[in-house]
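Fig. S4 source data, part A: sequence.
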Amino acid sequence: MGRYAAENGPVATPYTDLSRTEWSALRERTPLPLTAAEVEELRGLGDVVDLDEVREVYLPLSRLLNLYVAATNGLRTAVHTFLGDAGDRSRTPGGTPFVIGVAGSVAVGKSTVSRLLRALLARWPEHPRVELVTTDGFLLPTAELEERGLMSRKGFPESYDRRALVRFVADVKAGEPEVTAPVYSHLRYDRIPGERLTVRRPDILIVEGLNVLQPAQPGSDGRTRLALADYFDFSVYVDARTSDIEAWYLARFRALRETAFQDPRSYFHRYTRVPEEEALEYARRTWHTVNEPNLRQNIAPTRGRATLQLHKGADHKVRRLSLRKL
């Protein structure tokens, strides 16, 4: 079990720390179901993921998650047997989706992690239907953010419709036949009015976002509500040094300036028409006034709530992992 130094000596932590080599050995004979071309399609801009990374990091994780799904379904069967529940699918163990949360900073690579998990988990015959939903769709519309004076805090917990997000995951977890979510456009930097993503009773739901591990906050009546993370069966926190994440953020902004931002419809198209250093100065300012404060104040403090922490090095590769045992 992992330990850390304290004033009176080492103190046990709920995590077991594993090197990448130790973790990789845990995949046993799990076959690699993805090709190099498929991995290339799944990775995000600036992220460094190859077949070795998939084989050594994400295959063992898919095996662990498969074991978790089986164990969780067994526990639910025991509970239903005890309660004597019967009837429709929404009240049977098979009708309760396994929910995974993936958290981490802007530009840390959590979207790539989520897409890889979706692809790998769907190859297991026990749970072929795997859906991925990002919390971006639950950001308040730009007009509302502007009205509330929250545009400079976009991505902070208060910039989301948290009640709708929790209700969405709760309905999926309850086995509702169809549950819909708003759709976000990174091109427009806003929700797409009238467009919805439909989720139909998946075996596994992956929820990816900055603040998905936030604890519940008291309501206006002082009562504490359920948090989004209360519906998770497993959670992953993608971790890295803040200075490395900043470097990745700036590199990604530079790459987007040469690609997606070139589209005249892009919210950030204006930064393709100014000198590069001026555009990068805007990106640095955004990092230091929005993304870094959000990371330090809201995102990083939730790291200890995750089931698994993936610790990345400066090269974007996972170097070690911390798995919660208690």
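Fig. S4 source data, part B ends here. The chain has one domain: 13-324.
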